[in-house]
Amino acid sequence: MRFIVSEGRLIPEVLAKANDPAAKPISHIDSMPSIPMHPEFPYSPELLSFLEGKQLLLEELPFPLDLIQAHYEHGYLSYEKGMMKTKHGWRCMRCGNEEHHFFASFPCARCQTVCTYCRKCIMMGRVSTCTPLVVSRFSFPQDRYLSPLSWNGTLSQGQQRAADAVEDAVVHNGELLVWAVCGAGKTEVLFPGIARALEMGKRVCIATPRTDVVRELFPRLQQAFPSVPLIALYGGSDDRGKFAPLVLSTTHQLLRFSRAFDVMVIDEVDAFPYSVEPMLEYAAAKARKEASSLIYLTATPHPAWQKEIKRGKRKAVTIPARYHGFPLPVPSFEWCSNWRRQLKHRRLPRNVLAWVQSRIKTAKQAFLFVPHIDVLEQVVCILKQLDQRIEGVHAEDPQRAEKVQAFRDGRIPLLVTTTILERGVTVPNIDVAVLGAEDDIFTESALVQIAGRVGRSAQYPSGDIRFFHYGKTRQMIAAKRQMERMNKEAAERGLLKTQ
Ligand SMILES: [Zn+2]
Ligand SMILES: [Zn+2]
């Protein structure tokens, strides 16, 4: 689409009375007019409630263009550039992409020029140099909820302190990092703060890079806040395009929001792809109101953030103890020679094999983490000779869910896995080993998460964690230190059970 600039406003070429040679794609218009809001305008509540808090493409708005234009001309919505020229090229204003190789050009029928578009967020509909993003400038009064929380669990002492800090951040629009060890129970820590936000008429979003997390949190939040409309946004969910006081969203779905939320919680902030993928950061910043709070939840903050916390440059609260009050089991390191060479001869290092045999013998379930799929296949092949029930699972495995379920049911004694199971899967009584812990894929954060699988239940709070390696790495040492530090802090703060 092309626009004409006339009398301090933009007019879509298709609505203009005559052809205008000066019509331009929106990204090429130098100064964008701003229009004051006309309070007497009989606005369409359907259109404005559909658009509230959003940033949408025209084709995502099921309303006629002249109605949209009338709202624009009376200051109720604005057109923003889908792409912005930068010093080095373009920036996609929906997803924040500036990387050259994620842009492409095509002869565009809508603006009759060669149009540049963003490939990075193309699955949400195309944003190109002639694409306006439609943003609401109007907001309806927000509902307040009286005592919306109906959760009657109790928080541990460590959780309570973090929950107080979250609530404080919510009330004062602050920024806070909650660093909670695996198994600390970080979701419950949000409950009092969310309740307070809803009482104040604030809108809350919990954003995460992972669809699994959205699906897992949904029933828990629904139960905790039964009277509050809650929606879950992820690729394929029925709630896409809707808005509610309480929203759970993945990165991509969050891209459709703009200045919508008073409280933004980012869960599993260290998880792939956030750590290597700036899109969630951009989306979360765009979806927050200017005055809003920002809360990060993580078990394994990025090393740069750990440094900032240590220097007092980042506000953080730690929960160093698990909810059951037992210390984190700490990994031990064991050298296992050049295991790759042994694999070539269809053998496993003797100590690794002995570790597996002893789990089978004592019927203690275990995960064996390996760095790559090719390793996985070789290892499973060798281990099946020990016990036919041993299985392997990886990200593209079509039977992934079934195998994880079979493991939970106790039908698989040992599951060989790539890092896909490093988080999320919780099984009560297991041991964990890593083969090739020196591989680059096993970062400090990945290793902490892997170790975090062990001892999660109060009934079985301990277990064996073994990092088999062919040369210790800094990452391994940092992971172990991190867990030891947390145990020390938990003991000093009196958060551990005294026998
Ligand atoms: Zn984009
Ligand atoms: Zn175009």
Automatic annotation (TrEMBL):
Q: Where is the Helicase C-terminal domain?
A: 355-499
Q: Which PROSITE patterns match?
A: HELICASE_ATP_BIND_1, HELICASE_CTER
- One Pfam assignment: ResIII
Q: Name one GO molecular function term.
A: DNA binding
Cross-referenced SUPFAM superfamilies = P-loop containing nucleoside triphosphate hydrolases
**Helicase ATP-binding domain: from which residue to which, for each copy?**
167-319
**A biological-process GO annotation:** DNA recombination
Q: What are the protein's UniProt keywords?
A: ATP-binding, DNA-binding, Nucleotide-binding
Entry protein name:
Competence protein ComFA
Species assigned in the record? Parageobacillus caldoxylosilyticus NBRC 107762
Q: What is the lineage of its organism?
A: Bacteria, Bacillati, Bacillota, Bacilli, Bacillales
